[in-house]
Amino acid sequence: MSERDAFSTALALIGGADPALWGIVGLSLAVSLAAVALASLVGLPLGAALAVFRFPGRGALVTLFNGMMGLPPVVVGLAVYLLLSRAGPLGGLGLLFTPAAMVIAQTILIVPIVAALARQTVEDAWREYEEQMRSLGATPRRSVATLIWDTRFSLATAVLAGLGRASAEVGAVMIVGGNIDGLTRVMTTAIALETSKGDLPLALGLGIVLIALIVLINAAASAMKAVAQARFG
Amino acid sequence: MNAVHARPSPLPLELRDVSFAAGGVAILSRISLTLGAGTRTVILGPNGAGKSVLLRLCHGLLRPSAGTIAWQGAAGRRRPDAMVFQRPVMLRRSVRGNVEYGLKLAGIGAAERRAIALQRLEAVGLARLASRPARRLSGGEQQRVALARAWALDPALLFLDEPTASLDPAATRLVEAIVQAMHEAGTKIVMTTHDLGQARRLADEIVFLHRCRVVEHAPAARFFAAPTSPEAAAFMRGELPV
């Protein structure tokens, strides 16, 4: 099959509501959205606390999180694999090669991204707010909550950055999910497999959907920022 | 709602031998000062005299390097003082949300918060902007929101740090009128300024700071008629329009 045919077949698959393709897209989104939700639950308060609280070792932690933004997915996958494999400490849970394992791996991958970006955003706001909030009697804990709320639109871009990273990575989900058809096959792992098998239309179709999603996510991020800027200054 | 009169006053606020240094540089040196109820105290002095630091020490945003600052009157449940800064910091929420925020921190219920906030916004002439995002307001309007936010807490003492330094004359007049209204409602006013005209308009007593020290503390009329210190006399000559 020529590349040209592959492309038109790919478009037909997308347009024709091919169940295999859309099943894979659906699982990808489910896994990445779950990971982002968990990572936000952990990462946003963590980043905000890191911005407000002053304690020994804070600088080292900030550096650590900044560095961990670039964690190699395959290494995270390997670590989670070792944790969840039958002989591993959490092997009894039987999670390896399930979507849950993929969610765990992606969560670990993007917590540092969400936390580091949130830290930066909240710290900038805190620099402006600090005296005023202390004057009004806000405790540091309360300040963290207020800052998260007040910077929520900027923080949404941190969350979307995490989502972009999660939905685009292949290494971690491949290792802990196993790319099992109908069970743990997601867009990125399917593209890798189908390309090596020579099934270019499905790989290309998934690739187009993936890129469209990522563009959409980024467009949403900048639109949200613009709206918030106009509305709240 | 004007609990100021009902509550026993925590005033006076007394400073004993208060010094403050940052990075080995003395900012304030052995300040002893009593801030009593009823009067409007204006802290005057050239830039760098330590006016803003003195307010921040009194308000508890900074800790003195030496000396004590203590309320001499009745201790209440709530913090007795509030502060308005030179540049108002508006939270990213509505005007009303900003005014309610301090009340929320003080544990006041939603209905009462709303009522107090609207009443204070009415008092500063901004009730019609209550639901607007606060950060979209003009500088003068933001400063009035900051005043309403402080006033909502019914402070026994309000600190103002050069509240009109970045405002035009019209906005300055509005701010001064609000300060006057708070004074008349029983709030002790302590304000810094480098604007002599403003000091003349608002002050009952003057604290003149020069080179980290209180050089003069006198009733305003006497201070302006005949300052006893050469530093204050020079400051007034330098600042007055020729």
Brief descriptors of the model:
heterodimer, A: 233 residues, mainly alpha, MetI-like fold, B: alpha/beta, Rossmann fold
What form of chain A results from the Cα inertia axes?
globular
Shape of chain B from CA axes?
Answer: globular
Number of strands of chain A: 0
Spatial sequence of strands, sheet with the most strands of chain B: 5-6-7-3-8-9
Computed structural class of chain A: mainly alpha
Output the CATH class name of chain B.
Alpha Beta
Q: What's the CATH superfamily of chain A, by name?
A: MetI-like
Number of domains of chain A: 1
Structural class of chain B: alpha/beta
CATH class of chain A: Mainly Alpha
Instruction: Give the integer mean of the pLDDT values of chain A.
Output: 92
* Uncertain ranges of chain A: none
Radius of gyration of chain B: 18 Å
Computed over alpha carbons, the radius of gyration of chain A is 20 Å
Topology:
The complex is a heterodimer of chains A (233) and B (242).
Chain A: H1 3-15, H2 19-52, H3 58-68, H4 73-84, H5 99-135, H6 140-150, H7 152-168, H8 171-177, H9 187-197, H10 200-232
Helix pairs in contact in A: 1-10, 2-5, 2-6, 2-7, 3-5, 4-5, 4-8, 5-6, 5-7, 5-8, 7-10, 9-10
Chain B: H1 3-6, E1 13-22, E2 25-35, E3 40-44, H2 51-59, E4 66-71, E5 81-84, H3 95-105, H4 110-123, H5 139-152, E6 157-161, H6 169-184, E7 188-193, H7 196-202, E8 205-210, E9 213-219, H8 220-225, H9 230-239
Parallel strand pairs in B: 3-7, 3-8, 5-6, 6-7
Antiparallel strand pairs in B: 1-2, 1-4, 8-9
How do you describe this structure in short?
Chain A is an all-alpha fold and 233 residues long.
Written account of the structure:
The complex is a heterodimer of chains A (233) and B (242). Chain A is mainly α and 233 residues long. The model of chain A has no long low-confidence stretch (mean pLDDT 92). Chain A starts with a helix and ends with a helix. Chain A has helices spanning 3-15, 19-52, 58-68, 73-84, 99-135, 140-150, 152-168, 171-177, 187-197, 200-232. Chain A has one domain (3-228): MetI-like fold. Chain A is globular, with a radius of gyration of 20 Å. With 242 residues, chain B is of the alpha/beta class. Chain B has a single domain (3-239), classed as Rossmann fold (3-Layer(aba) Sandwich), CATH 3.40.50. Helices cover 38% and strands 25% of the residues of chain B. Chain B is built from nine helices and nine strands. Chain B has helices at residues 3-6, 51-59, 95-105, 110-123, 139-152, 169-184, 196-202, 220-225, 230-239; strands at residues 13-22, 25-35, 40-44, 66-71, 81-84, 157-161, 188-193, 205-210, 213-219. Chain B has a six-stranded mixed sheet, with helices on both faces. A three-stranded antiparallel sheet of chain B has the order 2-1-4, covered by helices on one side. The longest helix of chain B is centred in the last third of the chain and has 16 residues, at 169-184. Chain B starts with a helix and ends with a helix. The relative contact order of chain B is 0.18. Chain A binds chain B through residues 128-129, 131-132, 134-138, 142, 146, 150-151, 231-233, and chain B through 56, 59, 61, 79, 82-83, 85, 89-93, 101-102, 105-106, 133-136, 149, 153.
